[in-house]
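User: Round two. Same drill as before: sequence, then structure, for each protein.

Assistant: Same drill it is. First protein:
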Amino acid sequence: MEEFKNLIVNNKAVAGILSQISQINVKLSNNIEDDSNYHIYFLPQNLLKNNEKSTLLDTFGILSKSKLLLREPISGSQISFYSADYNHSQADDEKGISLKSENVKNFYSCIFDNLDHKYSSSFFSNLKSNSNVSIIFPNNKMAHLISDSVNQLKSYAKKIFNIKINENQILTSSLPLDISIFEDGKLKKTIAIKNKSYLGISHQLANILHIFLKESKNDIKSSDNYTNYINKIFFSFFNFFPNFLNTHIFKFLLRLTGPRSFSNQILEINNFYTDQNYFFSNAIDDNQSSSLFLKGNFFPEIKIEGSSKSIFSLLKSESNLICSSNFSPKQKINTILLANSYSKNQYDAKINDSVYELLNLDKCYYLVSPSGLITMVDLNSNLNQKSSLTSSKSKYSDTQQKALDNFNVNKFKPSLPKIKLRFPFFQKN
């Protein structure tokens, strides 16, 4: 697929997000049927062109029954609650590259003004995938209530705000779960959105569209939001527990999983992305990794000291090698040498000492795509080995799964074991 300057879309959410994360000229399809009138989205802060109209969420919590249960800081990925200006023109024809949302999930929302509360810049969720409800407090005078069910929306408006809303107050938004990409009417690829909540879908849309703009020729896939079994049990049944127990379980799981991972699970943004076929990181990789940032994550947006730019401004080629300036890589791919205050060698960018330690650059290096997606993390001892700089073509990163794939089962016929029953009174003397 060739590079593009214009895009035609048939979904207002896709159009709004594209306009906030890129300079692309976005137009609406001439046969659009999207009648959304709620154009506020959750976007990664580092992707926004203009942060003036956004609210950075800094705390999150669980919505339990009729109470806002707990309030914990958001760690790791920073999320902006953004109100999109909607002024896209319609396309005259369908020539060029078009993005068609063929499967959408409808959300319903209501905005409450003139409130007086203490939850500014907070997000609360009831954690139910089948009847999701979220409350966002962008400031201390306003609240946004969002649900995928009209009845749930009305019920929680009465429970939380003691307000009975009517149909005229309800706003709608259609977020895509599947996007087909066409070039001059010919299908080129499809993209699936795995998240289910309003926050999760819009946040994943922004990330996937960002990868698409930077790496349009590659197939883009996302994993399901990673949640371990213990958390899944809690998320599924916490509504049946009394609130005083929920508080203790919540805090226990937060510390057991770690604040960064647990907050991303609650917010439903703990996804892996890839340009290969189902090549995601897994629990085995996590345990063996020498870095907090894994394959399938985005490299963090790190500011270059003495400059307003970030590391992302240095990403160029299909594969970018990011490592410490203490090493001299032999490969010819684009290399970005990072240094801290103790470095004496030549470097491309100087970063904060704490960030240098967070990346663990004295022990490992990264391969990063033009969109900032980490395609490999490896030890510095393997830095000058050519084989270590080519990512595996296997479908799986799990070594046990590779062994199963290589096992020849052509002559294997599954059957139940034959059990020989022996009873003492039937035996001959």
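Second protein:
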Amino acid sequence: MRKTILVVDDEKDLVTTVAYALEQEGWQTLRAYDGRTALKLAACAPLPDLVLLDLMLPDLSGTEVYRELRAGGMTAAIPIMMVTARNQEIDRVVGFEMGADDYVSKPFSLRELVLRVRAILRRMERTENPEADVGFGRLRINPSGHQVWVDGSEVPLTALEFRLLSTLLIRRGRVLSRETLLHDVWGHDPGLPTRTVDTHIQRLRKKIGSASLYIETLRGVGYRFRSTPELVD
């Protein structure tokens, strides 16, 4: 099935250019020039596979649109790439700490944008054994449905949080440095401040509640998911 990408920006010429480049790669596009239209299109079935979101919109701020998408039951797991003229390092850090899957500053290369889009969509593809649930003590993960249960209750996670948890679980028993997690989960080379990882680990632990004890912190080293579920109350 062809992937659908929602492009949100108030610059109509830029939206047309970006949409054309994406369609040349075989993807379908949806277009929104303001935040409210973006929210409506994102919630329509079939849901988009990715949202390219400008942070400076005429009605709602991009961060407000982002929060609305993350708070929505149907749209919470849609990956979001922030595209903005704000190119200071602090803006990128804030974007990633909010949970953005990627962050691209204007002006940007269309080729680079396409490569980043492809990388996100590739990370969202099914695993080798997509139908099999992965169980670990109180925790259960369904890779194909991007669903997580703790003690039998479903826990809604964003696409990035799901990748972070899956990466830790799949490599359980191994120590993963913050730089490794930045590269493998966020898809970036080391260089992004490591507190981005710490912020998301903290958020993930809060969401998964009792299963958070499976994630161990090794000070000065990184994180490790327990090799066995024993010893957890």
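The chain has a mean pLDDT of 86.

User: Perfect.
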